[in-house]
Structures
1.
Amino acid sequence: MKTVIINAGPRKNWNTDLMLREAQKGAESVGAETEYIDLYSLNFTGCRSCLACKLKGAQRNRCYWKDDLSPVIEKILSADCVIIGSPIYLGEPTAGFRALFERLCFCTLSYDGDPYFEDKVNVGLVFTMNAPRQYFETSLQNVLGGIENSFRRFLNGEVETVAACATMQVDDYSRYSMGRFDPEERRKSREEQFPKDLAAAFDLGAKLSKAE
Ligand SMILES: Cc1cc2nc3c(=O)[nH]c(=O)nc-3n(C[C@H](O)[C@H](O)[C@H](O)COP(=O)(O)O)c2cc1C
């Protein structure tokens, strides 16, 4: 089993990265070989609509745009599982997540009929956000549920999401103009809830990376 872990957030050692490191440990706990990729260390854009992936005679399930993301897409499509993590920015996953999502799904999409991709890649999604869990479970479901459904449709595997809500965005709130947040509540969430979120990320990695 091969599991690719993608950090589609810009910060290392912060909430999303920590969640993904646990998911990676979970995957390794069931014997998967893992690779961790920091998307924001790479040079890439969203889909450029070159349509090379739709040319007659082209090898399918391949993104032909020459930048750092195409080899990542190749790795994902030849893996058994991918776990992608992103903070929520303005009610959606990051621009980097979106770029990967567009190019990964579009190169498996057929304008002739059923999607081209016939193998199966399980997809784990890890989201972190300032918002409370209730907001994640209600208002974000339109956007995130749509992403889950697309991954089900294009990559044919199991798709599951875990989230860390009410995260600590900064270490020391007293240094920032962030009056909307109660630093004590954030610290409590970090100490009491975040360890449970990390455990859920570990379980996600283990579950989706387990050989059938
Ligand atoms: C540009 C930007 C936009 C954000 N927008 C939202 C948002 O719409 N909803 C939310 O709950 N949190 C939002 N956040 C907060 C982050 O999602 C949250 O702090 C997250 O846990 C950060 O992940 P990280 O620690 O891995 O960087 C935003 C943060 C930034 C930098």
Note: The longest strand covers residues 81-89.
2.
Amino acid sequence: MIHLTNIHKQHGSQILFSGASLQILPGVRTGLVGPNGAGKSTIFRIITGEESVDDGTISCGKKTVIGYFSQDVGEMAGRSALAETMSAVFQVVKLGEEIAKMETAMAVPMDDDSLTALLERYGDAQEEFEHRGGYDLETRAQTMLTGLGIGPDDYHRPVESFSGGWKMRIALAKILVINPEVLLLDEPTNHLDMESILWLETWLKDEFKGAVLMTSHDRIFMNSIVSRTTEVANQNITTYSGDYDFYLKEREIRRQQLLASHRRQQEMLAKEEDFIARFAARVSHAAQVQSRIKKLEKIERIQLPPEQKTIHFEFNEPPRSGDNVIGLDNLSKTWVPEDGQAKEVFSGISGMIRRQEKIAVVGVNGAGKSTFLKVLAGQVEPTTGTASLGAGVEVGYFSQHSMDILHGGLSVFETVQNVLPTANIGTIRNLCAAFLFQGDDADKKVNLLSGGEKSRLVLATLLARPLNLLILDEPTNHLDMQSREILLQAL
Ligand SMILES: Nc1ncnc2c1ncn2[C@@H]1O[C@H](COP(=O)(O)OP(=O)(O)OP(=O)(O)O)[C@@H](O)[C@H]1O
Ligand SMILES: [Mg+2]
């Protein structure tokens, strides 16, 4: 259905793909995996035509309808959540409006010929409308929104009143409503809570009949949906015929085999070279030596893939804080949105967070976890009560939306420098390198970074300072498996 063949793509000196190929087949669900910055999102953008390739071909059936959910949400405003969700199928919506207009027109008396012509057009329009699922469009849109945690009470709220994370859900609902033949999903679970993830999983498995190409760092989700796994790494694309766990096992097997053949080849080469060296000076063996040299030149050397680079860092020794880290006294928060409907998120919270405690904040969709953490981090004023920091507490706050406060125009280096104004250039370069922005990468502008690279940068700016209280809101979203492991160990 969609074929990328022998593609080559390069940004400056960074080669993303060289001679890579990928196929999307009807109804097949494929997971797209690989380290941060390998080029997964780039593949999506190549398929949708947002980015071009330097070489190679891309073929896609003309009529193939593609739905693309990207890692960044575009701007949305001026519509209700429901209208926004339906707007994706705008031709169908427009058709519906035309049908309504024709119905009004029919109520007005007219001559027979005009009426016949109108009826004919009306019939055609109705048929197409039905064919495209126009009659249940609204119901479908409602199902998607509700499944993703936006219930009937919120259908008619203006989109701009939703927070970034919730806008992402509307964007996702919008794409599901299209019911495309090919669904491209870039990290769809990042903005969802458990219930919505389960809903999406069931929907993709039971309702959706098209092809899926999807990235996700959620292994369980991935395993339950995909039947093929495509890895993007080392400038290449490799497809494995199984789910994520199969891929991990199979990749290890292939790696071992490659190591073994590499070792055998090295031994063979060493022997040959040894022979050549020994007999090179003997005239009697000249022909033999020459032919062996020729043979050696022709042998294609087995290349071992480079080890995946991982971030490495150690926390700075932070100053010791008092034993009482945050005292909570009758804390409450009520959001008053512009349309007036006040919403109490939590109230009556009192207690003490003590030094060296590690606390998990859990709760369903919209329970107020992020709001609570924002109040603790001093990002948001509580409605009543206080959250008071103890003596010597140095707070660091990370949220998935911390990425939004990065300045797109600054480079990686400048971003780090801004939080460590007194550090010297060498220290900042080292810190950048520890978070895998090596050499030229540190001079990259932030708006060019991949999702995971942005998270990494935010973590770098956060963890560089000597902190003794970390408030982390979903810190692992967008990070690849290895980076997650390392963050976990460091914590
Ligand atoms: N216009 C550009 N100029 C220079 N480099 C770019 C540009 N666009 C993307 N890149 C780089 O290309 C690489 C691949 O980016 P891409 O977004 O495809 O990665 P990804 O595999 O989706 O990563 P992640 O898992 O973090 O989402 C990144 O290193 C990114 O910084
Ligand atoms: Mg990406």
Note: The chain has a mean pLDDT of 88.
